[in-house]
Amino acid sequence: xxxxxxxxxxxxHSLDSTIDFYRRTYGFEVAHVEVNEEQGVREAMxxxxxxxxxxxxxxxxxxxxxxxxxxAAFLARKGEGVHHIAFGTPDVAAEAGSVAExxxxxxxxxxxxxxxxxxxxxxxxxDCGGVLTELVQAAGDDEQAG
Length: 146
Ligand code: CMX
Ligand code: CO
What we know:
The protein has helices at about 15-25, 70-80, 90-100, 140-145, and strands at about 5-10, 30-35, 40-50, 55-65, 80-90, 110-115, 120-125, 135. By secondary structure, it is of the alpha+beta class. It has one domain (about 5-145): 2,3-Dihydroxybiphenyl 1,2-Dioxygenase, domain 1 (Roll). The protein has an eight-stranded mixed β-sheet. The longest helix has 12 residues, at about 15-25. The chain starts with a strand and ends with a helix. Carboxymethyldethia coenzyme *A binds near residues 71, 107, 115 and 132. Carboxymethyldethia coenzyme *A binds next to strand 4, helix 2 and strand 5.
């Protein structure tokens, strides 16, 4: 079960100037900044709204911290822009199993650590109509569902 759009991931060269754009243009403020070594990014979460299920929706601004990372490869090929969409779910492992049964490649053998204590996994964009798709179980989501 997918319950919300958790975030839209946006690849950028400079986190600071992209944060500045979203602040000046729309008034969005940074809710959280984090380095995720495993994913090779420095990222900022800009909260857009809360949702009925107790989660929230964010923009996730992504700046690569090394050249051999997915976001660096994306920037080199396509330049700045929308990198992925992430759906929220109360159970990321169950959701990954269910989409895999439908023939969609799940990129992680086990869910990994995402931003703000979340648990995440990615689905191959070639199996999702060209959209790199992430599934997110927010920290505390399982308790809300139970
Ligand atoms: N969206 C849509 N298509 C994408 C894509 C993206 N973000 N990234 C790559 N592709 C497409 C490419 O266009 C290419 O298509 P063509 O063959 O038609 O040209 C194909 O996928 C292969 O591209 P590639 O540059 O060779 O990339 P890889 O196969 O090495 O890797 C992917 C692609 C999706 C497997 C890899 O980026 C990945 O594992 N991503 C998941 C992890 C991630 O993105 N982490 C950063 C975000 C962290 C977070 O959100 O917290
Ligand atoms: Co993401």
